[in-house]
Amino acid sequence: MVTALDNDITDIKADNIGDFTFPERNKFDAGFGVSPRTVDYISDVKNDPDWIREFRHKALEIFNSKPMPTHWATKDLDNIHFEEFRYYLSDGQKPKRSWDEVPEDVKRTFERLGIPEQERKFLAGVEAQYDSEAAYSNVKKVLEDQGVIFVNSTEGLHKYPEIFRPWFGKVIPTSDNKFSALNSAVFSGGSFIYVPKGVKVSHPLQAYFRINSEQFGQFERTLIIADEGSEIMYMEGCTAPKFETSTLHSAVVELVAMKGAKIQYVTVQNWSSNVFNLVTKRGIAHEDAEVRWIDCNIGSRLTMKYPGVIMKGKRARGEVISIALANSGQHQDTGAKMIHLADDTTSNVVWKSISIGEGRSTYRGQVHIPKHLKGCKNNTECDALLINSSSRTDTYPAISVKGNKHATQHEASVSQVSEDQIFYLMQRGLTEAEAMSLSVNGFINDLVKEFPMEYSVELKRLIDLEMEGSVG
Amino acid sequence: MSLVIENLTAQIPDRQILNGLNLTINPGEVHAIMGPNGSGKSTLSKVLSGHSDYEVTAGTVTLDGQNILDLEVDARARTGLFLAFQYPHEIPGVSNANFLRAALKARLPEGEDIDAVAFYKQLYTRMDQLEMDRSFTGRSVNEGFSGGEKKRNEILQLMMLEPKYAILDETDSGLDIDALKVVARGVNAMRSESRGFLLITHYQRLLDYIQPDIVHVLMDGQIVLTGGKDLALKLEEKGYDWVKDEVLATA
Amino acid sequence: MPDTLTAPASLATTAPTPSADLPQWFAERATTAWTTFDSLPIPGIKDEHWRYSNAKRLDPAAFHRATPAPESAEAEAVASSIGLSDTAARLIFVNDQLVQSDTHALPEGVICETLTDALIKHPEVVQQHFMQREAALGSAKFAALHLAHVQAGIVVIVPKNVVVENPIEVFHWVATENAAIFPHTLIVAGDNASVTVVDHYRTLGEIPAFSCAVADFVAQPGGRITYAHCQELGNAATALHLSSTSAHRDSQIKSFQVQLGAAFSRSESISDLLGQGSRSDMISISLPTASQVVDQRTLQHHAAPHTGSDLLYKNALYDTSRTIFAGLITVDEGAHFTDAYQTCRNLINSEEAEANSMPGLEINADQVKCSHGSTSSPVSDEELFYLKARGINDHDSRKLIVQGFLEDTLSRLDHEPLRHLIEQRIESKLASIA
C-alpha cells in the first residue's frame, strides 16, 4: 500500500536497511557550528538547570582547548569540520508513551527499523531517539512498579537530580578527551536508567538512535546506575541515512555497577559510511560487580571507540566482547581499556575484526594493573581476518603490570580464509560467496553467541550484506 | 547416463600428472582405482572436482552428458559429484548441522528452504548408521576430530547429499579396522542402481569391505590395467612391479 | 669537589671535529649529524616511542666524550676481557681506543678493521652501508649524536661464499666516570657468506658512563649473520643500542640481545626483510634487578613476499625493576606469504617490579601468518611446590625456574661455545641475586 508519506521517503540507496530519510520539520535548530551561543540555545530549549548550563559552558572551553589526538590516531580526524554540523535539531515534542501518538514520519522510521515489533516480542522498555530528542519512551509497568527508572537524560536530570547528579560526568570526566568535552557541551537525548537494589530486569531495555537530518551531529548522553545486587541488560542500535556530507555521532556513556550488580551493554551499530562515530564509553564496577560491553561495529567512515571498565572494588569483573567489520572506505578503530584498581579483579577482552576490500580495522587496548594490588588477571585475545588482498588490520595493545601477584596474557593473530577451506565448502555445492560468508560467520561465531538471540540473527544478516561483492 | 572421462590430461605448473586418462563409470557400478604413490590417484579426484591447483590441458569429463570441466567447483558439486576428501578440511566455528543445511539448501531452487524436522530426522538416522554421537551436529566441521571421525563425517555428508557419483579419496587411510567397517557399512548402504562410485585406494584392504565391480591400476597418470576384483588380490600378492612387467609384456 | 675549570665539556655543548684523515663524505655526514642532534629536542613523554619510558635518562649533558684511559686502566680492562676461547678475531676497545687486536685467524679475504681504518681503506663499502637506516623508533637524536662522535668499533666485510667459522669477538670498555663511548658495528655478509660477531659492553667498576652504540647488519643474497650483544655495563651506567638489519634474498640474520647491566638500557632493533625468502630472528634476554630499567623497541618490517621473522623477548624482573617492550610487525602491501611472530614474556619475581608490553601489528598484505603474544606472570606456585617437594630450597628452585623460563631463547643459538658464554654471563648475574 502506497501512502502519501511513502512518497516523501528519499531512498538514496537501498543496500542498507537504514538508508532512507524523511524531510526535516524542525521547530528548534541550533544552526551550524558550536559556540557559547549554541550552548545557551540548547540550554534554553531544554530548560536546563543552572548547574547543567555551567557544566556545558565549561565543557565547551575544554573542547576548544584540546587538540585533535592525531599524534596517535588517524589523520582522518582532521577532515572533521566542526563548523559544518548542526548541533541540535528537534520538533519540540515531548517523547510519547504510545507509538500511536508519535508523529507519522518518525513512527514510520522506527517501524521500518523494526523497533515496535521488537518491543512487543522481547523488550522490557524502549527509548527511540530521532535526531536530538527521544520521540518515544516507554517501560513496562511491572518494572516501573519495581522502581526502575528508564527515561531520557533531560528528564533524568530534571526529575531525579538526587540520583543523576552524583554520578553524571564522574565516570568519564569532561576533560577525558576532545569528544567527551564536545558531548558534555551539547549533549541531548540518551538514556538515564536506575535499577534499584536487588532488582533483576529479566528482559533487555533498548534504545535506538536514529539520525534523520543531513549535516547533523548527534550527542546522546547515557547514564546507567545499577544499585547493589541488581542486574540489567541494555541494548542500543543506531542507523543513519547515507548523505554526501559527513555526519557526526559522539556519545558519552557512563555505567555504574554498585556492589554485586551486573550491567551488560550491547551495541549493534550499523552507521552509513559518511558517519564519524567517536564515542566514549566507560563503566565503574564496584565490589563483586560486573560490567560487560558487547559491541558490534559495522559501517561508519571512522569509528573510534574503546569501551572501558574501571574495576574499583574487590573481585570486580570487566569484559569487552567486540566485533568490528570494516569495508572499503571504513576504518574501525576500536578496542578496550581495563583499569584494575582493587585486588582479585578480572578483565577479559575478546576482539575480532573482519576487513573487507580496502577496509581497515585497528585494535587499541590498554590494561593497567598498578602495584600494591594482588590477584588481578587480564586476558586479551585479538583475531583479525583479512578478506581481500587490499584489506588492512593493525593491533596496538599496551599492557602495564606491576608486581608478582598478577597474571596477564595477550594473544593476537591475523589470518585469511584459506583457499583450501573455500574449496572444501564449494565441493559440497556452496557458491564462493556462500562459502566465504559461512567461513566468516564461523570466525565470529563464538562472539555472536554473546549477543541476545534476536540481535545475533540480525547480526548475521548484516554481515552477509557486507560480504556481498567481496569475492570474485 | 554415466560419468565419462576421456583422454584427461592435467598438470601442475612444473609437471604433467594425468596423461590421457580414460574411464567410464555407469550408475550402479563401483570402480576402484589402485596405484603406487605418485601415480596420480589423488590428482584425479582433485581434477574431477575442479581444484584450481591443477590445469586441465586436454580431454573431457561429462556427467550424464553434461560437460563439467567448465563449471566452478560448487556448480560441479551440484550436478551430483561428491568427493570424500583424503584430508578433510577443518572449518572453525561452523557447526556440522549448519554446514549440511547450507549445502542442502544450495541444491534447492532460490528462495526455498529445507524442512528442519525432516532434515534432523534424516541426519540422526544417518549418524546412527555411522555410530556417530549426536554431539557431532553442534561441533565445528572436522575441528578437533580424530582421523577416523573426520572420515566418518565425510561419509555422513555423502549420505546426506546423496550424489549421483561419489569419489572416495583414500577414505581407508589412517582408519583402524573397526572404523573401516563402519565407514564401509555407510558406503554400502548408499550403493544403488542409480549411483556410481569411484574408490581411490592404495591398499586392497578396503576392497574386502566394499566390493568393487571393476578394478583399475593407475600408473604415470594413465590406467594401465583393468580387471575384476581378483585384480586387487593379485596386486596385493605380487606388488606393483608385477603390473609394470605385465604392461610391458602386453605392450 | 671536582675542579670545574678542567672538567671536560659535556656532549650537549661541544661540536666534535672529525679527523682530517677521514673521507670527505664521512666528515660531512658527521657535521650534519651534529646539527641534527642539536636541533632535535629530547623526546617528551607524549612521544609514543617513549611511552612508559623517559628519554631524559639519556641526557647528553650528563656525559663527556671519552678520552684515552690511563695505561693501568687499559691493562685491567684487557685482563678482564674474558670471553670465547676460539675466535676468528678479537678486539678490545677502552674508552673508544683500540688497545688490543688479534685478527690472524680470519679466513683470507675477510675484512675486519676498526671503523676509522675501514673508512680509510674501504671507503666505498662503508659509505654504501654505514647508518643508512633512519632511526625510526624514537632515538633519531641519539643516532645523530653517535654519528657526530663515532670513531671506534669495527667493520666486518665477508666476501662471497666465505664462511667464518669462529666468532669475531669485540669488547667495549668505559674506564672513566661520566665518559661516553660511541662503538659502531657494521657487518656485511656477501652472497652465501656467513659470520658470527659478539659485542661486549662493559665498564671498569661501578661508574656512571654512557655507551651510545649503533650497529648495521647487511646480509646479501644467501648470507648469514649471527650477532650477539652482551650488555654488562655497571649498574650506574646508561646504555643505548640501535641496530638495523637489511636482509636480502634468502639471507638469514639472527640477533641475540643480553641485557644485564646499566641503570637504564634502551635498545631499538629494526629488521628490514627486503628480499624474498629472507628471515630474521630477534631474541632477547634481560634480568633487571634493583631499580634497573630495560626499555626495548622493535620493528619487524616485511617488505617482500615469502619472508619470515620471529621475535622472542624474555624478561625476568626482580626488585623494583621495570621493563618496557614495544614491538611492531608491519607487513607492506604486496609482501604476501609473510610469516611473522612476536612474543614477549615477563616473569615477575617481586611485588614491586613492573612490566609494560605494547606488542603491535600492522598488516597490509594478504596470505600472511602473523601473531603476537605477550604474557606477564609470577613464578607459578605449583611449579615452585613441585621443585621444593623434591628437596630443592626456595632460592635454588626459583633460580631453576628462571633458567627454565629462559631456555627457549638460548636454545635458538646454535653456536655451542657462544651459547655457553651467554649462559655463563646469565649464571653470574643470577648468582648475584639474593
Write the layout of secondary structure elements.
The complex is a heterotrimer of chains A (472), B (251) and C (434).
Chain A: H1 4-8, E1 28-29, H2 36-46, H3 50-65, E2 89-90, H4 104-112, H5 115-122, E3 125-130, E4 133-139, H6 141-145, E5 149-152, H7 153-159, H8 161-167, H9 178-186, E6 191-195, E7 205-210, E8 217-218, E9 221-226, E10 231-239, E11 247-249, E12 252-257, E13 262-271, E14 275-285, E15 290-299, E16 302-305, E17 308-311, E18 317-326, E19 331-340, E20 346-355, E21 360-369, E22 377-386, E23 392-402, E24 407-416, H10 419-427, H11 432-448, H12 453-467
Parallel strand pairs in A: 3-7, 6-9, 7-10, 8-11, 9-12, 10-13, 11-14, 12-14, 13-15, 14-16, 14-17, 15-18, 16-19, 17-19, 18-20, 19-21, 20-22, 21-23, 22-24
Antiparallel strand pairs in A: 1-2, 3-4, 5-6
Chain B: E1 3-12, E2 15-25, E3 30-34, H1 41-49, E4 55-63, E5 66-67, H2 73-78, E6 81-84, E7 91-95, H3 96-105, H4 116-129, E8 140-141, H5 147-161, E9 165-169, H6 177-190, E10 196-201, H7 205-209, E11 214-219, E12 222-227, H8 230-238, H9 240-250
Parallel strand pairs in B: 3-10, 3-11, 6-9, 9-10
Antiparallel strand pairs in B: 1-2, 1-4, 4-5, 7-8, 11-12
Chain C: H1 24-39, E1 64-65, H2 71-80, E2 89-94, E3 97-102, E4 111-114, H3 115-121, H4 123-129, H5 140-149, E5 153-158, E6 168-174, E7 179-181, E8 184-189, E9 194-203, E10 209-219, E11 224-232, E12 238-247, E13 252-259, E14 264-273, E15 279-286, E16 293-302, E17 308-317, E18 322-331, E19 339-348, E20 354-363, E21 369-378, H6 381-389, H7 394-410, H8 416-431
Parallel strand pairs in C: 1-7, 2-6, 5-8, 6-9, 7-10, 8-10, 9-11, 10-12, 11-13, 12-14, 13-15, 14-16, 15-17, 16-18, 17-19, 18-20, 19-21
Antiparallel strand pairs in C: 2-3, 4-5
Helix pairs in contact in C: 1-5, 3-4, 6-7
